[in-house]
Amino acid sequence: MVNFWLDFILIAVIIVGITATMGVILNWFGVNIFGRKNSNEFTIQSDKSIAGFKKVGGKKLT
Questions:
Q1: What are the Cα distances from residue 24, in Å, to 3, 12, 27, 29, 32?
Q2: How many CA atoms lie within 13 A of 40 on its CB side?
Q3: Pick from 20, 40, 24, 42: which is nearest to 32 by CA?
């Protein structure tokens, strides 16, 4: 009976380890190969166009 539980725990650890390793590897592929290189393109352009605006509204600091 001890051998059964030893084998069961060993196989469970191997399966969980392989699954976790595959998740890390596939995440790396997703980020580095299929990920968008210019993910901040629109926010950067928006910040550039707003840069020269005069601040209006809100409370006046005295």
A1: 32, 19, 5, 9, 12
A2: 3
A3: 24
Q: Which of 40, 10, 16 is nearest to 24 (CA)?
A: 16
Each residue's pLDDT tens digit, 1-12? 999 999 999 999
Give the global pTM.
0.51
Round to whole Å and give the CA distance between 32 and 40.
Answer: 16
Region of 61 on the Ramachandran plot (φ > 0 left; ψ -120 to 50 alpha; else beta): beta
